[in-house]
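Quick start: what a row looks like.
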Amino acid sequence: MLVVRFVFAMISYGAGVAGGFFMPILAVGALIGAIVGNVLYSAHLLDFSFVNNLIIFSMAAYFAGISKAPFTAIMLITELVGSMRNFMPLAFVVLVAYLVVDLTNGAPIYESLAERLATFKQLPIFKGRNEQIQIPVYAQSLVEDQQVRRIEWPKDSILATIRRGSHEIVPSGDTLIIAGDLLIFTVFSDNSGKIRTKLIALTQLLTENG
C-alpha cells in the first residue's frame, strides 16, 4: 500500500492536475508508521498497543517534513485524533522532522510547486531566500470572483496554491478566486513586509480598503 500510494502520488502530481495534499500526505505517513510499528512488534521490541501511537507520530512528522509547517502539523493531527494526550510527543517528532528537512535543504511542497509552475509558465524564480505568505480572501474584496490573470499581483510574488476548504488548487490564469479561499504565495523574503501589505489590501473588505 505504501509503494502504490507513493508511486501514484508522483504520477498524479507529475501530471500537473490540481488536487489536494492533506490526505495523500497523511496516508503515506500513517502507512510508514504502521510498517515501523509492526516491524518493531514482530521483533518483540514494542507492545502492539503502541503501534497506533507510531501511526499518529509518523503522520505528524511526515506532514511537517513535506510542508515545513510544524505548528500546522501538530494542530492538525491533534484535531484528527481528538485528544491532547500525545501533544508533547507530537511536538518532539515534528521538531525533529522539521530540523532534518531544514538541515538537508529540503523545500516545502508549496515552494517546490511554485518553482515548477514558474518553469512551465516562465514566471520569475526568486534568487535568495524565499518565504510563504498565507492570505485569506474576504467577501466584497477586490479579488473576489476575479480570475487570477485579471489581478495585478505585487511584484516578487507568486500565487502558488489556493486552499479552498479541504482542497488544494494549483491555480492557472483562468482560476476564479472566491471568498473564503486561502491564498498561499511564495515571495522574496527581502520584500515580504511590503508584499504582505499589498496582498492584504487586495483581499480584505472594500470598506476597510477605503
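That is the whole record. The mean pLDDT is 81. The beta strands are 130-136, 146-147, 157-164, 167-169, 176-177, 182-188.
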